[in-house]
Amino acid sequence: MNKTTNGYISIYKAQLEKGDIQIAYERLLKYVMALKAYFERKWSHESPDFSDTDALSEQIVQAAMRAIERIMPFLQGD
Q: What's the gap between Cα 70 and its chain centre?
């Protein structure tokens, strides 16, 4: 499909009027801010060991998954 810039702008404006973009943006912003706060609390008193990148990566993934589990109920509500 070959749309012009004006065509994409029209579609974007129509989506903005529906309100879904604003809701999605707000929820994503809340998620990122909550995740940032979680990691700041989690590692505020710790210095991760960067010499073992595999272990560090696993720690980050596990911490992110725990944070997501805690944050999801908050994000699903209005």
A: 13
